[in-house]
Model the fold of this input.
Amino acid sequence: MPLRLLVLFALLVPPATGQVWERLPDVGTEHPSVDALAFLPGPTSEADTLLRVQSSWGIYKYVPDAPDGPWDHICAPICTPNAVAVTQAGSLLMGSPAGPLGVDRSTDGGRTWQRDVLDGTVALFGSTLLGGAVFADDGFHAWRSLDDGAPGTWEKLGGLGGFPVDYGEVPPSGALPQGRMLAAVYNGVTYSDDGGETWTPTDGAFGSGTVAWSLVFAEEPGHPYGGVVLAGLGTRSEDNGVVVRSDDGGATWAVAHRFDPAAYGLDEVVRVELAVAPDGSVWAGLARTQDGPRYNWLGSVARSVDGGATFAPAAAGYEGGGVLSIAVGGDGRVYVGASSGLWRTVEPAVAEESGPAPRGLSVAVWPNPAA
Done:
């Protein structure tokens, strides 16, 4: 590329924030794509254990000082998970909607597994509502366990209103004393006020072809709902990734931010993954698909300090390509599961006095609508 074009490109792309990224070691598989992230709880949030999910190979536990390498494969012999969740009680569940793996459960950090506690699922979610309910699905209906996902405790609930991609929740507040469950689906978001028994479509900025990729709750002091809900969308009709915001617990939505792909060195954004740090900053992982294997996807990372209204590039040193999952660890760093490996910020993204990072899960989607 001629030098004058490089200079022009540098002028068009805004400078990144102060965070610098580093790549964690790969696990030695043929393809490095990391589909999902999770954290097993430790005695303190700083001692949580990082898990990486690679759907064709399994789940790996990060043990940085291990003599045989930093990654310990903790799956059962049949292990092709598309989804993972850590429950409120600390159990680990993994699942897939097809193939030899249904939903398996481990209560000892992956050392042993209970096989096929459920036939299969697209997404998994460990809720804090209903005493720590666990949610799964069959691609159409929600399934719920009120006993930590144990065998024989799952019940089929109402239709989700679309093919599921992710789940989220609104914690109890004055406006919603029991809290609210949310489901990110094809063509928007649905919600449930009865623990997943029934699901209601929401109103807002969801056009034809929209995929709601991720849901997060951001606390706001004094807000009647305790905070706001943000959803990351891929809008095929307009080719740009969008963040939408709800100020009423996920019932109605409005566009908060539309990413300009050129600001991130991309020509389009079709996937937006979100995470919220304890200081309230919102982190967005962006992906742009292209022909060929998924590990060739392009992408970047952005950060917002105003509730998702504006974002700035936050990708100094990041070369991971398209973002498939993003999470904030108990150590305060931001972690990204990307089409080309696992990345994290070199330094914590938040001040230590901000408190422990919220727990959550990342979900890989099958089938991939953007492929």
